[in-house]
Amino acid sequence: MKANLKLRAVHGRSCIWLSVFVFQCCFQLSASVIYWTAYVEVRYFDSVSNETVGSICECGVFGADSPLDSASGLLVLPNSDPLACSRNTTFTAKHQPWIALIKKGNCAYSQKIRAAQRQGASAVVIYNIDGMGNDTNLMAHSDAKDIVSIMVGNILGTGMSNLVKNGSDVYVAIVVANPRGLWYSSTWAYSLSFTFIGVTTITMFYFAFLFIKRMYRNQQLRKQEMEMKRENEKAIAKLEVWTLRTGDPEVESEDVSCVVCTDSFKHNEKVTVLPCRHLYHKKCIEPWLLEHPTCPMCKFHILKYKIDEESDDPPSSSDTFRLAVIRTEQLHTSDSQNTDTLGRPSDSEPEIQTQHIYENLAFEEEAERMEHQDINSQD
């Protein structure tokens, strides 16, 4: 029982630590996918309308390894390769500071960013491939961390590239905007709340189930112990109980003692005789039998004796009260030795022979009945 309870306690602690681990992983995952958006301001001179046109939108996303800083400058395209994947990629800037505009594809983000950084760019804008609209991705560029890098959608990037190709001077300003990600999403907040409530509810129900199961098991064990105690009391009530007298072998012998208390038997002490014929002080053996219904010496089980006695045929009087018969026979033998052939008492002093006094009336009545039968048979 203790092993089972210990195993359940360990299992309960494992569930708690598992829940904590799951929440920690969720938190780390949510933290890892947080990204920052960027305000992108675009200004250029329109020769048709002869005025400066400008627009601003929260349409950029900072790279995962990019510094969260602002940057501004003239927008510049690669000279030969718009993807900037070649080692010989060059940029031609009219003045400082300038920002490189590169198209996504064919090589890693780090390679594109390093190519612009070698040429002296103050920032890098990478726009998505065709067909993606204004969708953006979170860039990972661990080999190029010292320069501001953002990604914009294909529509905005293509428009700025066409303006530069048509000879317009396009100025871009990048400003840090807001954090985004699962942690900052209302959907994620609701999902996390429901997950927490669900896990908490399941954990509470689980521990409530363990508690109820433990209470039920303890109640059953208490019922079994009470039932066993009642059976032990019934079995103890049917045991032989004597009152020792002077002349009994148990009193006269110094080698015979109660195993429970290790004291010798004395005159007028009450002793209990178990079915295995071992004697003990009544006050010593009964508390023992209530907890351990076995003989302290030979481990004889008094309840097993009771079951065997009930399952077999009723035993004869000589088998049930063997010790009483022996005592009675000893008494009559002593009487016969103290009379002569004519039936007169002999001159020699008779030995004192005493018979055990039974505390259980059933044993006493049986012994008296057998004694009367023996007297009648001698007459």
- Sheet with most strands: strand arrangement: 1-2-6-5-4-3-7
The largest sheet is:
7 strands, mixed, barrel
What is the count of DSSP helices, taking H or I runs of 4+ residues? 10
Note the beta-strand portion: 15-25%
In CATH, the topology of the largest domain is named Glucose Oxidase, domain 1
Whole-number total of structural domains: 3
Distance between the termini: 65 Å
Q: Give the total of beta strands.
A: 11
Please provide the ordered H/E string of secondary-structure elements: HEEEEHEEHEHEHEEHHHHEH
Dominant shape = rod-shaped
The helix content is: 40-55%
SS class: alpha+beta
Give the integer mean of the pLDDT values: 75
Task: Please give the CATH architecture of the largest domain.
Answer: 3-Layer(bba) Sandwich
CATH class of the largest domain: Alpha Beta
Q: Which residues sit in consecutive blocks of at least 5 with pLDDT less than 50?
A: 313-367
C-alpha-based Rg, rounded: 52 Å
